Each structure stands twice: as C-alpha cells, then as structure tokens.
C-alpha cells in the first residue's frame, strides 16, 4: 500500500510538472503571438428570438501556433492576463472588431452591434475608457454599435474604479453586457446601480434545460427568475450556448430576447460570417 501511495504521489507530481512546463512554454510562446500574426478573430451571431434578425455578433479571439496548433482562449487568456500581454491583445481585439463591424455596415448592410469580451485586467486600467474612445474614432464605428462583455467578478471586484469606467463608457454611448450571468457573485445591487444594458445567461443553465440527469425544472425556474429580474430592471437577456431546437423553444418561451449557440452558428471566420450576412447561409 505504501509503495502504491508513493507511486501515486510521483505520478501526481509528474502530471503537475508537465502542466507547469506547458504553461511556461505557452507563456513564452504567447509573447510572439501578436507580432507573428498568430492571433485572429472569429465571430458568432446572436439572434433576436422574436424577429430572427442577427442583432449582434460576438468577437472571439483565436491563437494558432505553428507547432501546437489551435490553443483555446480558455488557456491563453489567463496566461495573457498574468503576463500583462492582455493589454496589447485586448487593444488589438477591440480594434479588429470595430473595423470589421464598420466594414460589415458599408459592404454587407449589417448595422447590428459587435460585442467584445473585456478582461477585468484591462478594465482596471484608468486609461481604458480613453482607449475605447480612440478606437471608436479611429475605426469610425458609432459607439452604440459596440457592446463590451464583462463578467460579474470584474464588476464586483473593484467597485469604484469599475463604476467610474462604466459611467465613462455610458457617456460615450457604449453598451455593457454581463457575461456568464448567474455563475459569479450573487449581488444583484450592481445590476440596479450600474449602467448595464444586457445580461447573458450562462451556458450551464441552458445546458440543464435539456439534461435528463439534472432536473430541468430547476433550470426553468432559474431562467424565469433571471428574466424576471431583467424585466424589472429593463435589461436585455441573451441565452448562451443554445444547441438544440428544444432549447430555442424553451428560452423563447421563458422570455429571453436573444439567443447564441451552435444551433444557430458556430464562431465563424470573417469570410464565412460575410457569406452568412449576404445569403443567410454560411459558406
Ligand atoms: P465566453 O465569452 O462565454 O464565450 C462563449 C464561448 O462558448 C466561446 O468559446 C464559444 O465558442 C462557446 N460556444 C458558443 N456557442 C456554444 C454552444 O452552443 N455550445 C458550446 N458548448 N459552446 C459554445 P471560446 O471561443 O473558446 O471562448 C472561451 C472564453 O474565452 C470566452 O467565453 C471568453 O471568456 C474568453 N475569450 C474569448 N475571446 C476573448 C477575448 O477576445 N478577450 C477576452 N478577454 N476573453 C476572451
Ligand atoms: Ca462573452
Ligand atoms: Ca459567456
Ligand atoms: Ca465564459
């Protein structure tokens, strides 16, 4: 037993070492990601559940490494946050997304909102609002066509700084959405007190709607409660991670305004997204 235990520990150490090594390797490699053109954006449509219109498009960053291939943002965004590179990456993402949205208006007649994920690390910079303003000016995108997605954690962690930034963005006319709603802290006061226009119900709630193992009635009750809060506070509601027709019908029936997910479209590169805008069908 003793021997097996030691082996167990050794295996655990080895696994930990391998993971640490990989993180160090990726951290080093990510330094060059921007300058070597390894980053790109993909775009996922968000549909109005009443009209069927593509009201918004979320920009999502991708890292393609020449050796390691595609690395998930779930892996490299935390690395970029720790190394500080998130500032440059975030600026690049915002700029690309704004230029793209302006282009889609002029060349494909799409006048919806582009939504961009913002890391709490970016948001905590006193210069953030100015950067957004400069990017809007540079790209010629009207402020009302930009929505920034923040997680609850980001909003609650440094309240005064965040409040100042949110009010600055509100003055510019930029919209704010709360991402992964329902998974963070359970303070609701911030929804009332801060200039937030939209909440995105986390995918896990939508997933439970269809799961035979988890009781779907809880998901129904929770989504109903979230929509109720949103109605009271005059917020829009997006259902994330919608994968089936049943989920579409359910979230529409429960009063969600918008839906996003593989059922409608996966995140697409710009060319495929443009094909979708032109023909209603992806390439
Ligand atoms: P998120 O903002 O919650 O983005 C939604 C994620 O769910 C995306 O994963 C998307 O591809 C995936 N997804 C969309 N529809 C479905 C569906 O129907 N089923 C399932 N199973 N998944 C779906 P992705 O692109 O890997 O992004 C992961 C996370 O990385 C994002 O979560 C976001 O937190 C972060 N991220 C992505 N791009 C950026 C960025 O430019 N800046 C920052 N700061 N974070 C980013
Ligand atoms: Ca998001
Ligand atoms: Ca989300
Ligand atoms: Ca997320």
What is the compact description of this entry?
This is Diguanylate cyclase (GGDEF)-like protein. By secondary structure, the protein is α/β, with parallel strands linked by helices. The protein has twelve helices and nine strands.
List the helices and strands and how they pair.
Elements lengths: L1 H29 L8 E10 L5 E12 L3 E3 L1 H11 L2 H23 L4 E5 L2 H4 L4 H12 L6 E6 H6 L1 H14 L2 E7 L7 H5 L4 E4 L1 H8 L5 H17 L3 E4 L5 H9 L4 E2 L10 H10 L4
Parallel strand pairs: 2-4, 4-5, 5-6, 6-7, 7-8, 8-9
Antiparallel strand pairs: 1-2, 1-9, 2-3
Bound molecules: ligand C2E and calcium ion (3 copies).
The site of one calcium ion (CA) has 2 residues, from β6.
What does this structure look like?
- This protein has an 8-stranded mixed β-barrel with strand order 1-2-4-5-6-7-8-9, surrounded by 5 helices.
- The chain starts with a helix and ends with a helix.
- Helix 1 crosses helix 2, helix 3 packs parallel to helix 5 and helix 9 (203-210) packs across helix 11.
- With 283 residues, it is α/β, with parallel strands linked by helices.
- Strand 8, helix 11 and strand 9 (258-259) form a beta-alpha-beta unit.
- The mean pLDDT is 91.
- Helix content is 52%, strand content 19%.
- The protein is built from 12 helices and 9 strands.
- It binds ligand C2E and calcium ion (3 copies).
- Residues 44, 60-61, 72-74, 77, 93, 117-119, 179-180, 241-243, 261-262, 267 line the site of ligand C2E.
- One calcium ion binds next to strand 6.
- Residues 23-281 form the EAL domain.
- This is Diguanylate cyclase (GGDEF)-like protein.
């Amino acid at each position: 037993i003793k021997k097996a235990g030691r082996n167990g520990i050794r295996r655990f150490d080895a696994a930990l070492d391998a993971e640490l090594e990989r993180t160090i390797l990726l951290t080093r490699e990510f330094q060059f990601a921007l300058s070597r053109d390894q980053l790109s954006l993909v775009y996922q449509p968000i549909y109005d559940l009443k009209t069927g219109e593509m009201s918004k498009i979320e920009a999502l960053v991708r890292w393609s490494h020449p050796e390691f291939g595609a690395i998930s943002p779930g892996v490299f965004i935390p690395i970029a946050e720790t190394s500080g590179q998130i500032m440059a990456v975030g600026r690049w993402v915002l700029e690309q997304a704004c230029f793209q949205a302006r282009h889609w208006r002029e060349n494909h007649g799409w006048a919806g909102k582009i939504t961009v994920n913002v890391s709490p690390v970016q948001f905590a910079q006193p210069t953030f609002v100015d950067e957004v303003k400069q990017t809007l000016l540079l790209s010629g995108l009207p402020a009302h066509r930009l929505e920034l997605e923040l997680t609850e954690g980001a909003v609650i962690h440094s309240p005064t700084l965040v409040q100042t930034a949110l009010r600055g963005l509100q003055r510019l006319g930029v919209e704010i959405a709360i991402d992964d709603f329902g998974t963070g802290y359970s303070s609701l006061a911030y929804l009332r007190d801060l200039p937030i226009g939209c909440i995105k119900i986390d995918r896990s709630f939508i997933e439970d709607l269809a799961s035979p193992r988890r009781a779907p009635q809880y998901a129904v009750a929770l989504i109903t409660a979230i929509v109720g809060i949103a109605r009271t506070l005059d917020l829009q509601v997006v259902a994330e991670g919608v994968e089936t027709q049943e989920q579409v019908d359910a979230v529409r029936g429960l009063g969600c305004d918008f839906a996003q997910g593989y059922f409608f479209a996966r995140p697409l590169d710009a060319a495929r997204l443009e094909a979708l805008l032109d023909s209603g069908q992806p390439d």
